[in-house]
Amino acid sequence: MVSFGPVPSRRLGKSLGINNILSPKVCSYGCVYCQVGHNVEKSISRESFFQPEYIYRKVEEHIKRLSSVHYPDYLAFVSNGEPTLDINLGKAIRLLKSIGIPIAVLTNGSLLYDEGVRNDLNNADWVSLKIDAGDNDTWQKVNRPSPELDFEKTIENIILFASEYKGILCTETMLVGGINDTINNITAVSEIVKTIKPVKAYLANPIRPPSDESVVPPDSEKMNRAWQIFNKNHIPTEFLTRFEGTDTGFTGNIYDDILNITAVHPLRQDSLIRLLRNNNADIKIVKSLIKQRLIRSTIYNGNKYYMREYHIQK
To answer: pTM for this structure?
Structure first.
């Protein structure tokens, strides 16, 4: 399945996720904090993953299996990679809009030099752009982009898209302790965000297991300092630093629910237990998935998480 959840979102309420990138992860970045894990490849070449009609059909079927309590506020393209690498993204968005639920896309913005990508995103109701760095050196350290990308041009094209886009535009800055949480970087990022003029700028820290085990969140003082810098630039800013909660949507198929959510969204143990209970399922299912090496558990910041486990043929 390409859809999962809905999962509680700190930005979108109840968000039914759409993973439009075939596993394993394909992205133009290799962010140190990525919750999906390490890249198999870095790519800036758009390609076809799923047919738009297939995505539409699967999302429609998924929604029909949900209770009214879990009816989603948004359909969100949140992929195990960069969603704009999907050359059919625009058509999929246009098909899904007929369902009548707003469409969101979370993107790193690295492909916005492509007019086709900008046109595709213009079909979405809500777009979030990743801006973690204010200079090339920090960009290389935190986002580890494809060598085919250029920092200055990436920022220029993000600003170009922002000037054209008519929907709800947000930015997200993930702060990592000791990497991009310096005053100089946060000030430079705030100047870029100020130019973009988002409806909301989100400041986040890693709350789920990152791809690089050395990643740690900034301390509260540095997070507060970042907010003060953004606020001084009159940017509407909000923290994304709290756990979203355990109320995850369910379809009645516990295997699909676990595998599809963990593909892009590590499940904290309390959320997984609630998901099992809602599906009238036993913890033995989780043990079976671990034994089959389809998921794995890990500890991060004192909490246990369950994640998809991919086995790549080299």
So the answer is: 0.79
